[in-house]
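Researcher: Last one for today. Full complex below.
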Amino acid sequence: MQLSQTGEFGLIKRICRIVESQSDEIVLGIGDDAAVIRPKTGSCLVLTTDALVEGVHFDLRYTPFDALGWKALAVNLSDVAAVGGVPAYALISLALPDKWTVENVESFYRGLKHCGKVYNTKITGGDTTRSGSKGFISISVIGYVNENLIKRRSGAKEGDLICVTGTLGGARAGFEALREGQDKNLFKKSIRRFLKPAPRILEAGKLIRELPVSSMIDISDGLASDARHLCEQSGLGCILWEEALPLHPDLKVWEEKMGTSPTRFALTSGEEYELLFTVNQDRFDSWINHSQGEKRVPVTVIGEIVHKKKGIRIKRGEKNVSFSEKGWDHFQK
Amino acid sequence: MQLSQTGEFGLIKRICRIVESQSDEIVLGIGDDAAVIRPKTGSCLVLTTDALVEGVHFDLRYTPFDALGWKALAVNLSDVAAVGGVPAYALISLALPDKWTVENVESFYRGLKHCGKVYNTKITGGDTTRSGSKGFISISVIGYVNENLIKRRSGAKEGDLICVTGTLGGARAGFEALREGQDKNLFKKSIRRFLKPAPRILEAGKLIRELPVSSMIDISDGLASDARHLCEQSGLGCILWEEALPLHPDLKVWEEKMGTSPTRFALTSGEEYELLFTVNQDRFDSWINHSQGEKRVPVTVIGEIVHKKKGIRIKRGEKNVSFSEKGWDHFQK
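Model: Here's the assembly. Have a good evening.
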């Protein structure tokens, strides 16, 4: 059905049917001028927003609408996790081109709702409007964080280890596999990671409780770029260890087929939504020794924080080289 | 300067210089993954979001960037006012086409900051990204409301008076004057109202404290449309009184020049950001009698709430006629 057939207010009614969530703390939900929430007491509020633009951040030729809904929310949840918070509410702002159908929008909202359900985030409002030619999605998430558990980009200390959760490079491999029309079965895991990333909310909470995490950021622009942000905001340098980078298993397949260096993918792959964090070396060693065998968060040490003068480099064999590979900068061409 | 020359992160630094606001309750501000706020205790949170799309909501041929920044925030603040709240924080999501310059974006942010300063709203974060061809702006505002002062669209009672703040039709007159290239001096006030609307935050607070306001909405789609929303959500009907509509002074000039009916403008003009509310008749009469001579909020009674069966009509001379003029529906053509 065309959007013009249902109209703005008809569409909003359909969206309400999908996302409606009754909850004691929602005093006023979707359908009024604004939502009203009875907030949790004793916590700080986390506020974040992220936009996805058609043709810049997503391509509908290989992105199903439900995955788009999932991802649009997940990228915001990852930002909440990166400061040590838990998400609670989401506001959805959508500008819809005429070519999107009512069913497309419903599918988008179902993916969004699914992600919200998995990560305890309630959709409490939004704005739905027309766009000229391209779809535009902006989501804001409101969450909570205990004030003394807040993690900043700027807290790293010289000598700290640099750690990362999970593996790197998968999102880029999945994106390239889709873009180049590769056999989807060969890149199942990386395609899933690209289309439906899993924000590390639980993992962030666990790490912060168990380790003296000194700084944290999520990898959205790429390791090369985000490590730089963390170092610059901490006023320090770093040495990453090429051999230590935890490579996504699909990078092996990609290397065999296309000859692309897995390290390059691991360094530059944006939209990974893994956590990059720093921690005191001694405390980390004792954590590793004492948590063996238990279900601990998958973490790899990939480098160390050094003095600013030593720059931002990667150890390749015996040499420390500067890396020029850029993460995603939305305005550079 | 072109956006590609400064790059995403360079642009963010420039924006930070404009909007940077130090404040005790902002624990973590712009430049990290998310903002963190120490919230006011004892209040509910108000959450709202509104998007403006180039070519749909604004036209750069006659909208200066600083006015655009002001308006993008003001329309959100109006939503907070409509539920009885006060705004506190804003998140700014921008997708910028290549044709916008760094100076354009800075000017946008200066207008935004000015509006925030006037209405006590701090810019605490955002996302800035590239857009293909058109600019997209989505702003979310977080505010506070006392739980027993929340105003819903759904609270109107049969027999209540329907009131509106200020005047109607000016935003439409201003828009048409700009679009048709009319003499700007003739339509100074209405152009200002269209470009830089004033959200009724103080007025909403005052009205709610002084009067038993039973329901409230802000006029963003147009009186015809928003009165309908209020009635439908209250499960009631209404009679508006044509002769009572408070017309913006510029409508007279417009009528003389173009022959367009002022009532039509008053009914269909969106983006007015006046408050439409309902109130018990006796209590209103006593308020009017006791507040004469004092500085009271400019309010006009424009109709009454009736049983649902009587429909949604306007009294024109001796007849009650249904009005078909539609407010702004973003998907109808």
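Chain A touches chain B through 75 residues (CB under 8 Å). The first helix of chain A runs from residue 3 to 19.
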